[in-house]
Design goal:
32% helix; 129 residues; five-stranded antiparallel beta sheet; single chain; Beta-Lactamase; alpha+beta
Length: 129
């Protein structure tokens, strides 16, 4: 059985390569554990970062947990938070709480719906499209 199939009794380990494989627009992926420690982060091969690597690690280790923790305070009134997306001129960012982890991704700019659909379908995240 495919370890990524939804409905298994325990969550499968998240792999950065699987997230890169979702779409060629994915530039960078970071995964943080339940304690908000950066588990793994990597830029796609042959893609230049807009920021230095040490800055990326500091940013991804602190900003997504802060934003998600802050916005999660409304979950009792509004329901579970599915994702946060931010669009800049040069890059799009997506932050997703998933199985007590945080997935943070930077993407080439463009429509977010196709990538959100792929994330929903592959991870089982409840994203409304």
């Amino acid at each position: 059985m495919d370890p990524g199939v939804k409905g298994l009794s325990r969550p499968f380990p998240l792999r950065i390569d699987d997230l890169f494989a979702l779409d060629p627009r994915v530039r960078y992926v970071a995964i943080l554990d339940r304690n908000h420690h950066l588990v793994e982060s990597r830029m796609r091969t042959h893609v230049a970062s807009f920021t230095p690597e040490d800055y990326d690690r500091k940013f991804m280790g602190s900003v997504p947990p802060l934003i998600l923790d802050t916005l999660s305070q409304l979950e009792a009134q509004c329901g579970p938070l599915s994702h946060i997306s931010v669009q800049y001129e040069k890059v799009d960012l997506i932050f997703i709480p998933h199985n007590n982890q945080i997935i943070a991704m930077s993407l080439e700019t463009g429509p977010l719906e196709p990538i959100l659909r792929k994330l929903r379908d592959s991870l089982g995240v409840h994203i409304h499209l």
